[in-house]
Please model this.
Amino acid sequence: MNNKEDNKNRLFQDVHDFLHDEDFIRWRLFQTKELDEYWNSFQIGHPHLKKVFHEAVIQFDTVKINRDQLSEKDKKNIYQAVWVDIQRHKRRRLVKRISSAVAVLVIGALSVLFVTRKEDPGPNSNSETEIIVGEALPGEEIHLISGGKTINIAPKSHIGLTGDGKALVTDSTDSRKELLLATAEFNKLVVPYGKRTNLTLSDGTEVWLNSGTQLDFPSEFTGSRREIRVNGEIFINVAHNPEIPFIVHAHDMDIYVQGTSFNISAYHDDSRKTVVLVEGKVKIETAGRLTAELLPNEKIEITRDDMTKESVNVSEYISWTRGILEFNGTPMSEILKRIGRYYNVQFESSPEIKLNDKTCSGKLFLSNNLDSVMASVSVLSSTVYQRENNIIHITKK
Model:
């Protein structure tokens, strides 16, 4: 590495530039003496970037990467995969430095803290022929249904209700448009698999909607209760108003709050529904007359006839709002389900497949590139990942 030449030619303006730079990522991952000297020199030569530089370091290090948990073989495999991708992008002349996809591959692959693997079932097992098949499904648009009209919403847009029957939609380019909503009925915000968005309700309550979620909400809250309905997963920060309680209806359960923040996962095709409380206090009632109260850092898990409560690390359940998936001894089947929802991919999930016995713990960065994420999962779960057009094959190494 020619430090002087690189420092001269390197252009940085914001945190994003550092987090997508090959040498910066390598430095934060491996921190060799040569890289330490290089970036110390860079800071001295670019004092105007001090604030941005340190913010990039903080953001990267919040992942709490434990590099020592990966074997040298895994590290070598990851580096070779990244190097091939870098060269491919360079040959195509698409970017001057490392692409976002490659950057996320490096971070995603090495940010998983550790991988727990079940013992091989034995010589008589046919596990070597096991295969998990996934299919990338056609993409759909986010749409808002109000008064019988369907309005397409651009990805990464924010929808803010103004309280007078109108909604202000701001897209990723800060372009804004105003929509007139129906006031006599609930509106519907439908977020398909592979998309996410966020909404501010008329009382100031903020709602983040995960992939495959439908939210029913009024244009303006009136009366003695604030009520919404959800099918899917949301993280919600409820505006405090002790005089007007807030109620979330999710399938066969109702959640009563005043002002608090929590995550709800209640997909219609999941047998388990969960509520995880970050701040405040909530009361939960089910159709089966089960009731419970939650305090911060507690989770309620509800099945058809049962309800269990436990203390949890809430970050694991709300990290999706930051583009990260966190796992803690999570079966591969569950990981693939969450990745599938995030990227609109349907994986075959037969319980007889022993590959699903593998468990992972750690954090996985989610980029716009499914291949980068699948490559990370493949390395860390000792599987082989191949993609042919829209079909994804995962087999045991």
About this structure: The first helix runs from residue 3 to 9. The longest strand covers residues 226-237. The CA atoms of residues 119 and 149 lie 55 Å apart. The chain has three domains: 3-110, 118-134+321-396, 142-317.
